[in-house]
């Protein structure tokens, strides 16, 4: 009886470990896409419609570089 319960416990642990590895493999990653930004609203709308993400224009653009729309989304 004790031998079979030990075997069942080991199979249960093996199942949990394999399930945990499967779940970590399938999690989504965050991607970032950029393009020239005209307005904050346009950036937000374009990012939402193209990629289903959240977009934001540069708050402090660098000199000689146009403002960029930064779009973060799950890929």
TrEMBL record:
Top-level taxon: Eukaryota
UniProt signal peptide: 1-28
Keywords: Signal
Keyword field contains Signal: yes
Protein name: Uncharacterized protein
Source lineage: Eukaryota, Viridiplantae, Streptophyta, Embryophyta, Tracheophyta
């Amino acid at each position: 009886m004790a031998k079979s319960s030990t075997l069942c416990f080991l199979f249960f642990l093996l199942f949990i470990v394999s399930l945990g590895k499967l779940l970590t493999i399938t999690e989504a990653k965050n991607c970032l896409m950029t393009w020239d930004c005209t307005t904050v609203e346009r950036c937000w709308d374009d990012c939402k419609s193209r990629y289903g993400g959240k977009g934001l224009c540069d708050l402090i653009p660098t000199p000689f570089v146009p403002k960029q729309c930064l779009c973060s989304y799950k890929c």
